[in-house]
Amino acid sequence: MKNIISCLFVITIMLSPYVAAEQVNLYSARKEALIKPLLDKFTQQTGISVNLVTGKADNLITRLKSEGKYSPADLLLTTDVGRLYRAKQQGLTQEISVSEAITKLPMNFRDEQGHWLGLSLRARPLMVAVDRVNVQDVANLEDLVNPQWKGKVCIRSSSNIYNQSMVASLIAQQGESATEQWITGLVKNFARPPQGGDRDQIKAVAAGLCDVAIANTYYLAGMLSSDDETTQQQAKKVRVIWPNQADRGAHINISGVALAKNAPNKAAAVKLIDFLLSEESQLWYAKTNHEYPVLAGIPWSELLQSFGTFKTEQVQLGKLGELNAAAVQLMDRAGWK
Ligand code: FE
Questions:
Q1: How many angstroms does the Cα of residue 152 sit away from the middle of ligand 1?
Q2: Is residue 110 in a domain?
Q3: 169 CA distance to ligand 1 centroid (A)?
Q4: Does 257 lie in the same domain as 246?
Q5: 308 assigned to some structural domain
């Protein structure tokens, strides 16, 4: 009897409108399958529920803007730093109070004013045909403009933010004119007009339509671990080459999160950020979407290890957003469709 009474008491408390359960409202440009399992774990561990709204990053930014101070959003999650920067520029974000987990993040993965930070690392190296390309023939991005690669380079459209961020990063490190020269040479060596996504560039190399592509590693990793035999076979025909290892390092980007300007659940939002930076979550990203941890000392999955270790660019990633417009302009001028 005593048990029943205490049970009823607990249920009453749970149903009471006066006891507001902690929650976080997350606007996510990352697909549900690539975030929901982590959010469920977070809820299990903390009792904080997460309301997930997924959509394209630009649409979520527009939504945040139109909701203004009535926006329920606490966090905005994107898969490219360019969009986090955009949200900040539009005044839609605020400073995240720094937790212990956050202090461990390298400074170039954090906004200078602390409005956003990286949650997982993505690398964009060269991907070459195993049977047609000698590793020593292409050590740097700069090599891709050599006549040797005429009609042999595949890359997706310049409207894609991964390419825009890559070019912006080059501008940050080498200036506009050197970057423009490189892009102009690169476009001349395109095997075909840019089309498709990163995975399609890898498939094009496998099919012999081109010899070299530039793509994010998690696409190749996803193909290698695919259940589909044909996809796996295609991926095996392609190898990663880490460019610019003797100088600036390979291009990287982040998936990351910004704290919304009018976040109604700030404290809970920071708890979620901490959870996403925990070893458990970092390992999950590495295993599930084959991304690299943003924190040092976290082991890589076997697949990531198989691509080898590499030196990364040291650019403050906010620069990629800052120089986005300049990058788009250069690509446009060079005829990169
Ligand atoms: Fe992607």
A1: 23
A2: yes
A3: 18
A4: no
A5: no
Report the separation in Å between the CA atom of 103 and the middle of ligand 1, taken as the mean of its atom positions.
Answer: 27
Same domain, 222 and 325: yes
How many angstroms does the Cα of residue 324 sit away from the middle of ligand 1? 18
What's the total number of domains in the chain? 2
- Claim: this prediction has a pTM higher than 0.85: yes
Q: Separation of 244 CA from ligand 1 center, angstroms?
A: 22
Q: What is the pLDDT of residues 33-64, one digit of tens each?
A: 999 999 999 999 999 999 999 999 999 999 99
Burial 275-313 (b: 16+ CB within 10 A, else e): bbbbeebbebbbebbbbbbbbeebebbebbeebeebebb
Residue 4 C-alpha to ligand 1 middle, in angstroms? 52
The answer on 147 and 222 residing in a single domain is: yes
Same domain, 116 and 128: no
| Domain at 78, CATH number | 3.40.190.10
The single-letter DSSP state of residue 314 is -
10 CA from centroid of ligand 1 (Å): 45
Distance 302 CA to ligand 1 centre (A): 20
Domain range for residue 224? 123-251+313-333
CA of 32 to the centre of ligand 1 (A): 14
For residue 12, the CA-to-ligand 1 centroid distance in Å is 46
Asked if residue 69 and residue 58 are part of one domain, the reply reads: yes
Residues 191 and 67 grouped into a single domain: no
Q: For 147-185, how does the pLDDT look when each residue is reduced to its tens digit (9 = 90+)?
A: 999 999 999 999 999 999 999 999 999 999 999 999 999
